[in-house]
Specification:
Elements (H helix, E strand, L loop, with lengths): L4 E4 L6 H11 L6 H8 L5 E7 L5 E10 L2 E9 L8 H15 L4 E7 L3 H9 L3 E10 L4 E9 L4
Parallel strand pairs: 4-5
Antiparallel strand pairs: 1-2, 2-3, 3-4, 5-7, 6-7
């Protein structure tokens, strides 16, 4: 486990860190414009960034809070920090903050082949509810849709 701290992302100045992590994690990353648009909707869109002991960005999570549901859009951790508790810390924070704002459920999509992510989400009580055929590109792949009902984190 690595010591890290999670904080809300509030400034577009942190987007370079987000984009760097995104580009090292996903084959079809979001663009700066997409993230700037997310930052304009702070009543719905929330960002959390994980930093190591010296303040370097090592992971992030972006989610929406819509009525009583959290939709986790992106959860990413730098490759050298994976399987060290960073994703768990981010996910725990997102679920806790969402619950504090009235969320009773959470959902996300994950590539069918992403076993590590699926195990993480299952550890937090997410279960597969359906499949979205051809949801992902680069490479083409189905998405598993996972849901989690409210429970203590």
């Amino acid at each position: 486990m690595i010591d890290c701290f999670i904080q809300p992302l509030t400034s577009p100045a942190d987007l370079d860190d987000i984009l760097r992590i995104e580009s090292l994690t996903f084959t079809n990353p979001w663009t700066r414009e997409m993230y700037l648009s997310e930052l304009e909707h702070r009543n719905v869109s929330f960002f959390y960034i994980a930093r190591d002991a010296v303040g370097e960005a090592i992971g992030f999570c972006n989610c929406w809070l819509v009525l009583d549901e959290i939709h986790i859009n992106t959860l990413a951790v730098l490759p050298e920090y994976r399987r060290r508790g960073v994703a768990s810390a981010l996910l725990e924070r997102v679920l806790r903050e969402g619950a504090a704002r009235g969320a009773h459920r959470a959902t996300l999509e994950v590539r069918r082949s992403n076993e590590a992510a699926r195990k993480l989400y299952e550890k937090f009580g997410f279960t597969v509810t359906t499949v979205r055929r051809g949801y992902y590109t680069h490479p083409d792949e189905d998405a598993l849709v996972l849901w989690r009902e409210a429970s203590p984190v």
